TrEMBL record:
It comes from Ruminococcus flavefaciens 007c. One of its GO terms (molecular function) is acyltransferase activity, transferring groups other than amino-acyl groups. Residues 1-153 form the N-acetyltransferase domain. This is N-acetyltransferase domain-containing protein. Pfam families: Acetyltransf_10.
Amino acid sequence: MKIVKAGIADLDTIRRIVRDTIRAVYPRYYPKGAVDFFLAHHSDENIIKDITAGNVCILLNEEGQPAGTVTTAENELNRLFVLPEYQGHGYGGELIRFAENVIFEKYDRVVLSASLPAKKIYLKREYSCTEYNMTECPNGDFLCYDEMIKLRDN
């Protein structure tokens, strides 16, 4: 597997990874309004902004096919998604390790907002919950998530 920096030409790939993963996984954890809110949050405009800033990477599997994506911005780990067909093969862990290494080069902590499906993964990687949040969606549903932190080992 290989992790490469995304360019504007990769927008369709990033969009597909994000949307396919949200649509396949998130309805098991959240009501429809929260899923729709989450999809809108990861809009093309937001993805393009992050790509332009040089913050988005794509994980390519052993055959060179896109399997996942991660975004880092300062000390924040964002938009980590692995396509459902590639989950359970270590790609998510590889993306987390990659993002942590990028962040720990300049900062002493990684912060992130963990969705319900991702929280367990971060807890296994020694992240701690710092705050629980509920965002009300336009239709009255709620998107619940945890703010989490991991400190660099000294």
